[in-house]
Specification:
Blueprint: E1 7-12, E2 15-20, H1 31-46, E3 52-57, H2 68-72, E4 100-104, E5 107-109, H3 111-118, E6 121-125, E7 129-131, H4 145-153, H5 155-164, E8 168-169, H6 170-175, E9 181-183, H7 188-200, H8 204-217, H9 222-239, H10 241-265
Parallel strand pairs: 2-3, 3-4, 4-6, 5-7, 6-9
Antiparallel strand pairs: 1-2, 7-8
Helix pairs in contact: 3-4, 4-5, 8-9
Length: 266
């Protein structure tokens, strides 16, 4: 598990928290930070002991996107059309097998919004601000924003954000489905890690399979999506995990009935 001066990694059990640590730049990402971020999530994916990741920005802001000062100084992100390469902001083209939760405070704008959309869930502070602010300076969305934002909020709402570059407060983000949950300011990391621990306690083969079926079903016909869901589901059933879960459930029910009977006899 490695950390750098721009990206830190902390763990709590099977939860892997990746922290953007450039608070003086509102966690804007320069090419070196992009590489560090990609490296952190590669380590998460490869770590068999890590089940869920949280992505968090230090200093009160999630991420302001690409570092425009670095861009103006000639430190330019690579934008390779090959989807097998890293995205300009590092991890945004990765398809991980495990969930990632964004803990969003402050500004989540431009490429930062794209980074949040890459995550599966978004726990958002009540005063957070979303927006495609890069519209105002002519920097295009190249980290999946044009693809993922419409999937999350619908084409009409996505185009409203993408074309206008307007500010979107947390309450509106929640109403359109962009914010999964809205929580008090300053509590997003704690709330996201608590949710991550809960997800990590679930039977993991089933959780990851159902998540995979959702993503692989996007763009497929209903018939093809149902077939893929069934194929993945059969693999989970064959793994024995559902039987183990059913046996645990039966043991808990039996224990509860015995406890009830004991109380009634007293």
């Amino acid at each position: 598990m490695s950390s750098s001066d721009t990206v830190r990694v902390e763990t709590q059990g099977s939860v892997y928290t990746v922290i953007l640590d450039r608070p003086d730049r509102r966690n804007a990402i320069d090419p070196r930070t992009a590489g560090d971020l990609a490296g952190a999530f590669r380590e998460f994916e490869a770590d068999d002991g890590a089940s869920v990741a949280v992505l968090y920005g230090s200093g009160g802001h999630f991420c302001a996107g690409a570092d425009l000062k670095a861009l103006a100084d000639g430190d330019v992100h690579t934008v390779d059309p090959d989807p097998a390469t890293d995205g300009p902001l590092g991890c945004t083209r990765m398809r991980l097998s495990k969930p990632v939760i964004a803990a969003v405070e402050g500004y989540v704008v431009a490429g930062g919004l794209e980074l949040a959309c890459w995550c599966d869930l978004r726990i958002v502070a009540e005063d957070a601000i979303f927006g495609v602010f890069c519209r105002r300076v002519g920097v295009p969305l190249v980290d999946g924003g044009t693809q993922r934002l419409p999937q999350i909020v619908g084409v009409g709402r996505a185009l409203d954000l993408i074309l206008t570059g307007r500010e979107v407060e947390a309450s509106e983000a929640h109403a359109m489905g962009l914010a999964t949950r809205v929580v008090p300011t300053g509590s997003t990391r704690e709330e996201a890690e608590s949710l991550a621990l809960m997800l990590a306690s679930m039977p993991q083969a089933c959780l990851r399979s159902d998540r995979k079926a959702v993503y692989e079903g996007l763009g497929l016909s209903e018939r093809a999506g149902l077939a893929r869901e069934a194929e993945l589901g059969r693999q989970v059933l064959a793994s024995g995990e559902p039987l183990e879960g059913a046996e645990r459930f039966a043991r808990r029910r039996r224990a509860a009935r015995e406890a009830d009977a004991s109380e009634q006899n007293e």
